[in-house]
């Protein structure tokens, strides 16, 4: 952990998060201003009604795929449900921005930050030759690797905490810091092209955020564990980062293209967007649920951890 701190990588990541949060805050502010100018009112009900009309128009347009039509139909039903129940899902405030930011970063941005930290935890020791010196100490190999893994877990916690803290602190300057007790709906489920609202219930936004950031930490830990395994198996840090980068980007693409490839649901990168189950968005493949995706990710992480410790303790040359 001290080596990670000395490299100042965590501080660089925090700076990157701060810059991106600032950009997204400005973009969100401009979007709100544009909507207000176009509609001519600040009433959220009127704005939501306009969003429903826009969604209907997009749904009726030609040239869109069936998967996109399914997404729009579900989105339309959600918007109408919020309007019918007199609940503003997008009330301005830093907590609302935090929710939007983590929902959009859980699949790619957050895993990329964790990957940068975990990629060279072991591979840098092997490529630099320091692993031989490390292994000559009277400490069991599994304990050495465990210390590395704990460092990865602590670093992952720092990344998720930084995202939460900076997104709240920076966006609050523009949108205000209130909104923790804003009522939100959760419990949506998808059945075919229909939105099932039988289990829908209200929770406070702070509880909603705890759930989403908990899921974000779980996803980050899984990605960190997989990257950690590659760092054990491969000497080159660049190769580790290249493999994980390709996997994460392909996952973001596949999530929008694999509705008919049912076996793809067992790939870890297709299961990263756990927050979509909380918000009621359609899963990449019919039949996928929150428990299913978490189980798949847990199995991948456990397998990666077993491989990491087995290889590290059994391999003779590093």
UniProtKB/TrEMBL annotation:
What keywords is this UniProt entry annotated with?
Membrane, Transmembrane, Transmembrane helix
GO cellular component, as recorded = plasma membrane
Pfam families the record matches: ABC2_membrane_2 (PF12679)
Q: Does the keyword DNA damage apply?
A: no
User: Which sequence ranges are marked TM in the entry?
Assistant: 149-177, 208-233, 245-268, 288-312
Gene Ontology molecular functions: ABC-type transporter activity
Signal peptide location in the record? none
- Record's protein name: Multidrug ABC transporter permease
């Amino acid at each position: 952990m001290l080596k990670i701190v000395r490299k100042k990588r965590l501080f660089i990541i925090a700076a990157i998060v701060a810059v991106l949060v600032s950009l997204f805050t400005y973009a969100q502010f401009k979007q709100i201003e544009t909507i207000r100018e176009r509609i001519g009112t600040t009433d959220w009900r009127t704005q939501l009604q306009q969003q429903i009309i826009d969604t209907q128009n997009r749904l009726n347009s030609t040239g869109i795929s069936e998967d996109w039509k399914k997404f729009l139909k579900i989105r339309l039903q959600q918007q109408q449900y919020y309007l019918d129940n007199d609940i503003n899902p997008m009330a301005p405030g830093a907590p609302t921005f935090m929710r939007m930011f983590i929902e959009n970063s859980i699949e790619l941005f957050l895993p990329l930050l964790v990957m940068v930290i975990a990629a060279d935890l072991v591979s840098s020791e092997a490529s630099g030759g320091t692993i031989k010196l490390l292994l000559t100490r009277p400490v069991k190999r599994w304990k050495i690797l465990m210390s590395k893994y704990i460092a990865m877990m602590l670093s992952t916690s720092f990344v998720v905490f930084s995202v939460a803290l900076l997104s709240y602190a920076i966006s609050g300057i523009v949108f205000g810091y209130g909104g923790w007790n804003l009522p939100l709906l959760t419990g949506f489920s998808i059945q075919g092209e229909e939105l099932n609202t039988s289990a829908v219930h209200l929770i406070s936004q702070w509880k909603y955020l705890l759930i989403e950031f908990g899921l974000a930490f779980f996803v980050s830990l899984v990605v960190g564990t997989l990257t950690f395994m590659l760092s054990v198996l491969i000497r080159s840090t660049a190769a580790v980062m290249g493999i994980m980068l390709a996997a994460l980007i392909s996952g973001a693409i596949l999530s929008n293209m694999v509705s008919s490839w049912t076996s793809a649901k067992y790939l870890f990168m297709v299961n990263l967007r756990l927050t979509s189950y909380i918000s009621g968005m359609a899963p990449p493949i019919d039949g996928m649920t929150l428990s299913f995706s978490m189980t798949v990710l847990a199995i991948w992480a456990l397998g990666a951890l077993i491989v990491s410790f087995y290889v590290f303790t059994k391999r003779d040359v590093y």
